[in-house]
Amino acid sequence: MYPLTGRFADECAVGVDGFCIGEPVQDSQIPLPDVRWYRLRHRDDYVAAAKLFALSPERELGAKPEDSCPAFARTAKLARAPVTKRLKDGTLGIEAAPQGTPMVGFALAPVPNPPGEPPVEQLGRSPRTAENGTVRIRLNPKVGLSRGLEAELVAVVACLAPSAPSRQGSVVLRVDLSSGQVTPASPSSDLLQRLQFAACRVDPNLPNDQLQAAAAHRSF
Questions:
Q1: CATH 2.60.40 placement within the chain
Q2: Which pTM does this prediction carry?
Q3: What are the tens digits of pLDDT across the range 137-163?
């Protein structure tokens, strides 16, 4: 925790030119954590992204921390490869350990892909890690089999903030729905980006009380 160096007046506009990874701060509009700290333009001071409302597209800041950030403030990714296991009830358990962020998202894409742009959907998102530093979620193969799928791609993504995936170290797995076998997958860059966004996205129509309830859970 660094000491406070100053304050801005309410509703003022500030310029920023990049971000580093830092202490999670609860977003002022969505009750989920944000680990991005924006660097004030032409200064070495930082302000929590969670406390700002963007007037310009956030993509202009890039998808990863600045190279000039301190070494400990450049990384938000998975600390290690996800662990998968077949559970007694037939579901597949997926466990991930994030580094530099408390939030992990999971997204799905069908195999085989239907004609046109492959659909993607969010499997779940955990806003906080469990006490042992991991996040767990379950995939039910019966659901995909009932839709005539052979397999599903599962993206495991570290999230910088609501609807802001980290581009560092995402993992995509191919799950054979009949056998439960899990192998690494390498989707196209376009599909990977869509999976990453789906994993971390926040539905703007989700009632605030549901978001608050999600934020209170330690893991899925």
A1: 77-216
A2: 0.83
A3: 999 999 999 999 999 999 999 999 888
Instruction: Say what the alpha-carbon torsion angle 194, 195, 201, 206 is, to the nearest 10 degrees.
Output: 100
Those residues with Cβ within 8 angstroms of residue 62's Cβ, 6 or more apart along the chain or in another chain:
18
Q: Which helix (H) or strand (E) holds 96?
A: strand 92-96
- Average the pLDDT over 29-36 and give the result: 86
> 77-216 has which CATH code?
2.60.40
Integer Cα distance of 39 and 9 in angstroms: 18
Of 78, 68, 36, the closest CA to residue 162 belongs to: 36
H or E stretch including 146?
helix 141-146
SS3 119: coil
In the block, residue with structure tokens 């995936």? 165
User: Which residues, in sequence order, are bridge partners of residue 137?
Assistant: 94
